[in-house]
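We recall that each integer encodes one residue's backbone shape. We quote one record:
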Amino acid sequence: MMQALFTAGSGMIAQQFNMDTISNNLANVNTTGFKKNAAHFHDLVYRELQAPGAPIGAAIVPVGQDEGLGTRVASSEKIFTQGSLIQSDNPLDLAIEGSGFFQVTRPDGTTAYTRDGSLKIDNTGALVTANGFLLQPQITVPQNAISVSVGQDGTVSALVPGNTQPQTLGQIQLATFVNPAGLSPVGGDNLYTQTGASGAPTVAQPGANGTGAIQGGFLEGSNVQIVQEITNMILAQRSYEADGKALGAADQMISTAVQIPPFQ
């Protein structure tokens, strides 16, 4: 009975983490390029009371006897399914339709990756993210540019006075990873960084080598499905309540046992 307390408690801790994960997904339902998390759980070790196949006299036990010790959080995985494309009036709002990440340079000189394509032009004419991080490879827009456009292959063009045809400014490159779920999210900047689990990035032109196409004038919304998250939240709540009842029942059984008068 004492073990039941710890087993039920581990279930409550796991469901609390699950609820935290779901809450974060719902909080970011309107975050551009956000990818939802999914909590995964593993069972804990088992206490083996009798091994299957153990001999008892001339017979062999057909099934074993073991006692589970609860559950634990195994991982919180990013799910990189496609978010919905939302049309905007800004030609520098870019959405990736398919696989890939925009590459940006952080102030410390390191490279980070993002699905948030809400680009801006800084005071030097360079294309930057909403947080001011330079896009890689760096592309500079002339100060006298009349208009800027981005093709599906990542070609950035600008129309300047005196020209009837847009001039090419540069080419946006996308990075892909063997295991994007292994990327490390950077809170506050809507970025990801490379880890040993993600593998090294493969950089290619949009639409080539499995990378997605770029849609100018669109932003990628989060891939959070509100109805699905609400359903998951109800399931987590009910599981938490069930573990709480098991905890209370085990406590009541212990209380009953300790109140039994000793044998005379």
In short: The chain has a mean pLDDT of 92. Residues 226-258 form the longest helix (33 residues). The helical segments are 2-27, 226-258. The CA atoms of residues 34 and 127 lie 21 Å apart.
